[in-house]
Specification:
GO terms for molecular function: quinone binding; vitamin-K-epoxide reductase (warfarin-sensitive) activity. Its EC number is 1.17.4.4. The chain is mostly helical. It has 6 helices and no strands. Helix 1 packs antiparallel against helix 4, helix 1 packs antiparallel against helix 6 and helix 5 packs antiparallel against helix 6.
Length: about 160
């Protein structure tokens, strides 16, 4: 097994922030007066975003399927599932071109979703969510890392 990479570190961080998002969502649903550290003022409020209509199924599952569909889960649940997979990929990422390609593909899709969610955040919901910004930043760093590693691997293979 390979050493812990930057990729695995970022994935672990993404998992922890996703778990924190789940905690915030559940605490706010149980106690409306709950105010986490990321709720700074009316404009900078993670609970406003994490409990919005767009915080379930990325705001689109309900439109395509329905509100009660099993895929219409809180967005943070997807992170709790996604980042452990990324962590495992990160342990072996430099050993396999296939894993590099898979990670680049996964991270391209996740980054596209992150761009969509950032659009919703700033132009539809009109709030700033610090937790969301951290998660989206992690996603973009994972994309950059995986593409850079893939390009380095291709360059190394050309030289051999």
């Amino acid at each position: 097994m390979a050493a812990l990479s930057v990729y695995s570190f970022l994935s672990g961080l993404g998992f922890l922030v996703s778990v924190y998002s789940v905690v915030i969502e559940h605490a706010k649903l149980e106690d409306d007066s709950y105010s986490p550290l990321c709720d700074i003022n009316e404009r900078i409020s993670c609970t406003a975003v994490l409990t919005s209509e767009y915080s379930y199924g990325f705001g689109i599952v309900e439109l395509i399927l329905n509100k009660d569909h099993f895929l219409n889960q809180p967005n943070s649940y997807y992170g709790v599932l996604f980042y452990p997979l990324q962590f495992i990929i990160g342990l072996y990422i430099l050993e396999s071109k296939g894993l590099l390609s898979l990670s680049a593909l996964l991270n391209t899709g996740v980054s596209a979703v992150s761009l969509y969610l950032m659009y919703l955040l700033f132009f539809v919901i009109n709030k700033v969510c610090l937790v969301c910004l951290v998660i989206n930043s992690i996603n973009f760093f994972l994309l950059i890392y995986s593409i850079a590693a893939l390009l380095r691997k291709k360059e190394k293979n050309k030289k051999e």
